[in-house]
Amino acid sequence: MPPLSELSPDALADLRAGLRKEYDALKGQGLKLDMTRGKPASAQLDLSAEMLALPGNRDTTAEDGTDARNYGNLQGLAETRALFSTLMGAPADQIVVANNSSLALMHDTIVYALLKGVPGGRGPWSKEEPITFLCPVPGYDRHFALCEGYGIRMIPVPMTGEGPDMDAVEKAVSDPSVKGIWCVPKYANPSGETYSAETVRRLASMKTGAPDFRIFWDNAYAVHHLTAERPELANILEACAAAGNPNRAFVFASTSKVTLAGAGLALWASSPENLRWYLAQAGRRSIGPDKLNQLRHVRFLRDDAGIAAHMEKHRELIAPKFAAVEEAFAARLAGQGVAQWSAPKGGYFITLDVQDGTASRVVALAKDAGLALTPAGATHPYGKDPNDRTLRIAPTFPSLAEVRKAAEAVALCTLLAAVEARLG
Amino acid sequence: MPPLSELSPDALADLRAGLRKEYDALKGQGLKLDMTRGKPASAQLDLSAEMLALPGNRDTTAEDGTDARNYGNLQGLAETRALFSTLMGAPADQIVVANNSSLALMHDTIVYALLKGVPGGRGPWSKEEPITFLCPVPGYDRHFALCEGYGIRMIPVPMTGEGPDMDAVEKAVSDPSVKGIWCVPKYANPSGETYSAETVRRLASMKTGAPDFRIFWDNAYAVHHLTAERPELANILEACAAAGNPNRAFVFASTSKVTLAGAGLALWASSPENLRWYLAQAGRRSIGPDKLNQLRHVRFLRDDAGIAAHMEKHRELIAPKFAAVEEAFAARLAGQGVAQWSAPKGGYFITLDVQDGTASRVVALAKDAGLALTPAGATHPYGKDPNDRTLRIAPTFPSLAEVRKAAEAVALCTLLAAVEARLG
């Protein structure tokens, strides 16, 4: 079929009639599918079944003699920090292993900055209002909600395929009110792209108006590959140190999509000075994390090879789901000039850019057909996508058959919305 | 022996010489004892050994069908909330079950109040600086550190044996800058006293200058009995509701000293309106708690009877330690007019009031003899006990033999410091 732009009004009207018929048939199927969130499927969680009986009755002593059952050890067990040293790109002594949510660590880091300030700053960020974060778009709605919740202004910056548009970033950070930037540097949520070495270098070395500017480096998908290709991500902590900005980056990750989504470990890493600062703040909040869950992870994952082997099993389960989406989109949307979509090499999402001005309509059509999609705009600050264009597709949680069905439905809704828009 | 006050200077000097000899002998023993923190002993943690292999490989589905391994359920599993309903004095739907630290819940509740404000208030508390909390003394150093860390002024209020001096509290809260009060209402840390029904009624019904005044009700020792007596604590949430102040109290507790100190569950309860507020804030911070640990607790503790039976086992282990301290103090200090100490019916601490002006000296003497005590002043805001009088003794962690030895050492140091002070 030719691109929609080459169709006559009559041909478009005929196409719309045909698509509506298809759509009505879709509605008649009474689907109940959810493609909203990047949740592991039950089969993925089964990969960690062994953990559910760990550490076992007699295994509660850490390498340094710590009784993992009792209070204490705010930074986390040494062997757990060592286990995640490669993944975090930091020495074990610059890592904090906490409870089950890296979002919580990002939240707390922001709260401590707001109420106490960070090293190199002039005091609490909350006294310098308004402050601003740069938000590469499309991005992660929970990052944006944190900023919005605490009155931190957000400036969107476009992603380029190798990370944020660094010319725009470098220009924006000259403003001293700009205190931070959100980055998902590998297999980005939702575009799937990995920041280039040059992007990392420029982020680490750029001149900032704020002396206490911080990069929130949410490396959520560090080991979450979908193909045999393994794009290299430059080490942000090393790049910052080399550029003379050792305290610039806070690194976050978690095992939520490695072991158990609700019962993983959250990870934090930064410079020695930032670490001391963080622990001083976190020490008022808690006496220490759940160290039994840390032992569980050490016993189960063991080392880098153990993590890699485990992630291969995830890949076997979810790569076919991504392929099914790709197939459905290609079959229906290729060459139509109404949509573009990403082919991620890792991570949890596919970005679908539909015809400008139709993303909300696609979501509404899908909803009426029993398919929940992330709201249009969720990939942008304040939930506002100025082009009403970008949708985030999360194919991991439903079964492969459901994913295929859902992707076909999304493609149909995308096409129908585009035709409707052209006909006015 | 007669009270010190009846001894002649010569008799005092003789006494000092004898005590110093004893003290030098004590130092010669090379003790290494720690009575600083209310930590369960290893034998207490062994009581929950069964939990270490729970929930087991096939037991991950909650009563409502939730997969406890996956993301979600910010408020906690319904069956876990039900399990702690009696302990919290709140219906399950007004309870939040979180991760392993109730201190973290107190911290977060304060942070949300500072940055967002609470229901009934005029906005973020941080915009109304300075704000003030009332701090019944002696009290818990980590409560005070939270206030100090975030610049919240603290006003000490004396404890009376049935809770804080309510005349002083009622007078102080007329000041609209007073936003909160810290309460450990049962087996208080460290005095051991339980608030009377009248104290609870007055706290719930008193007129406050601030429309958004809050009681931080840290019911840390709700089921932690040391005797067969079970002093009744009135229900603060019901008292506040009855008095027309339904949103006044935030209730906190944990299972840190029920199951596993580092891997327990933290509990939060309040009015429906406060609950909605709390979840709205906490929902930006995290997608949900570790629900597998919640299942572990439900499987292990089962119900109120299960909790009570389990706490009896703790009592059997720790009551003898409290008795050993009592015996050692009585043997050495009774009738000397140099010290008073509490005889708690529950909780984790004994308060030892030494001769005014000598608490720091007692701690220093103990330290030189190899016995770590909580710093003098720790029971007061800013670490300052104006009378240099109150010491907190934590007898649970060391072995019974060590506790006896440590209590004898404390008694000796207390007596020696008192004699020294009298001789100038």
From TrEMBL, chains A, B:
Keywords: Aminotransferase, Transferase
Entry annotated with the keyword Transferase: yes
Pfam families per record: Asp_aminotransf
Claim: Membrane is one of the keywords in the record: no
Domain of life of the organism encoding this protein: Bacteria
InterPro entries, alphabetized: AspAT_Ic (IPR024551), PyrdxlP-dep_Trfase (IPR015424), PyrdxlP-dep_Trfase_major (IPR015421), PyrdxlP-dep_Trfase_small (IPR015422)
MF term (GO), any: L-aspartate:2-oxoglutarate aminotransferase activity
Protein name: Aminotransferase/MSMEI_6121
Species this chain originates from: Methylobacterium hispanicum
